[in-house]
Amino acid sequence: MKSALELLKNEVLLKDDTLITSKTDLKGNITYGNLDFTHYGAYSEKEFLDKPHSIVRHPFMPRAAFKLLWDTIEAKQEFFAFTCNLSKKRQTYWVFVNVTPSYNENGEVIGYYSVRRRPSKAGVETTMEIYKQLLLIEKEKGLNASVQFVLDYLEQNKISWNEFIIGLQKQAEVGGYR
Ligand SMILES: Cc1cc2nc3c(=O)[nH]c(=O)nc-3n(C[C@H](O)[C@H](O)[C@H](O)COP(=O)(O)O)c2cc1C
């Protein structure tokens, strides 16, 4: 069994025009995935529909990242992140992702929508260093300490999570894409 770091080396890069989209119900079960989702995830529609989105979860991803995601979208806010996913072929693909709540005509949240595109080099490199630290904290002190590490980092830098992530993606203009 390959370690998370070994899996990172087996990487597939997104193209400039790649747009991986998916929809989930309120629990994170997949209700829709577009052609790019099928292509990069390497799961057929039959294999991914109604399955938890963790089907493409990568072991390098710290639990804190998903805690922040769910806390944010359940508070009806949008969430941005750099994440790596693992395909059925055990290949890693890094994405810049935006997740938003979807509403019905009564204003009730009925699910979530996500759009992923090619991430900036700066975004992936910075995120990798942060995730390495979070994984270590989670191993030694648990999830709460890991989330607190992120919150302290944002507080010290006087920036919100989404501002921080969007800023890193904008660096693609000078530093290029992954
Ligand atoms: C719209 C939406 C898209 C998501 N996309 C991903 C994704 O691409 N990769 C991923 O690992 N988790 C994704 N998640 C988060 C998963 O639901 C889940 O929280 C995560 O994979 C951690 O699962 P685990 O707690 O079972 O390890 C998404 C959630 C939502 C609501």
TrEMBL record:
Protein name: PAS domain-containing protein
Signal peptide: none
Species assigned in the record: Helicobacter turcicus
Organism superkingdom: Bacteria
Matches recorded under InterPro entries: PAS, PAS-like_dom_sf, PAS_fold
Pfam families per record: PAS
Transmembrane parts of this sequence: none
Record-annotated PAS fold domain positions: 24-112
